[in-house]
Amino acid sequence: MIELIIFTLILFLCGKLCQKKNILLDNLNFSKHKKYISISNKLPVTGGLFLLLGLLFFNFDKIDIFQKLVLIGIFFVGFFSDVFRNFSPNLRILLQIFFCTLYVSFSEVLIQDTRIDIINEVFINYKIFSIIFTLFCMLVLLNGTNFIDGLNLSTSGYYLLVCISILYLHNQYQTSLDIDFLFNFIKLLLVILIVNFFNKTQLGDGGAYLIAFVTGFFIIEFVDVNKVVSPYFAISLLWYPCLENLFSIIRKLALKKKVSEPDNLHLHHLIFLYLKKKRKRFANNISGFLVVLFNCPIIILSTYFFYSTKIQISIIMTAIVLYVISYLRLKNI
């Protein structure tokens, strides 16, 4: 508890210092869509840097130099887009592919089972296809997480739920995982959540990529090692940022817009704009909380039925239907 309080104070004071000195602040002029939901042009993007330093601090002796470099690399891919106005989206994607490929190649952490025999036999059992599929899933997750990171509490709160779900399974069923890493990761997310609530930090693109990268590969390895866990449990846990990304791509293609062009039509944008129209105080924080609350029952149910592929698929389909209904309802208000 003392450690948690100290880290919270450090991040809080760093945020205040950055605001006072006008350094490491999110520049709303870099992206028009940020202006719709940001409450200030002086929000420091220190959350991602804090997460990176915290991960390296807690795991310095556990991870090798290669893993440290990959974590630093994936963070700076997003951090550069925070501080440089014209950092190319295409270059970002290429760098994401590069660092994810490096990690997969050296760690051998791959999606190894789909519970569909024909897909396993034709694709997944061949390493090259397994690598390509893993890379595709991670790219969707990385960029989807960056999409949902537009509100206070949304990203840190969502991933905190995901990590607590894994921690619960471990405590109940003694699964195989690095419990120290998970526990420390939860502490870092909780600190970011608290300070983000008071508008003294945000993850930024670098933090969003890092949190998705770490969680995504951690869950892939968790499912690979614990064979009793359905691989669709991973999808149930991470469905929301992935669907935001895929739904955004489909929407932009239908509207004949550039896929890389940002817009204000994500679900969290619509929630925020609805609350803002109703003149709700703290619309940003409330919107982020509602996003987390929306995902709570989905994650709880998927955790309870972690072993059942059929139930996991039903949960995923139900979640998608609820998302689409909520989206269309808000879009037409």
Beta-strand percent range: under 5%
The total beta strand count reads 0
Helical proportion, percent range: over 70%
Q: What count of domains describes the coordinates?
A: 1
Total of helices: 13
**CA(first)-CA(last) distance:** 44 Å
Global mean pLDDT = 89
Q: Characterize the biggest β-sheet.
A: none
Structural class: mainly alpha
Low-confidence stretches: none
Based on Cα principal axes, name the global outline: globular
Any idea what the radius of gyration is?
19 Å
What pattern of helices and strands is seen along the backbone? HHHHHHHHHHHHH
What does this structure look like?
This protein has 333 residues and is mostly helical. It has helices at 2-21, 47-58, 65-83, 89-107, 117-124, 127-148, 154-173, 179-197, 204-225, 231-254, 267-277, 283-304, 309-331. The protein has one domain. It has 13 helices and no strands. It is globular.
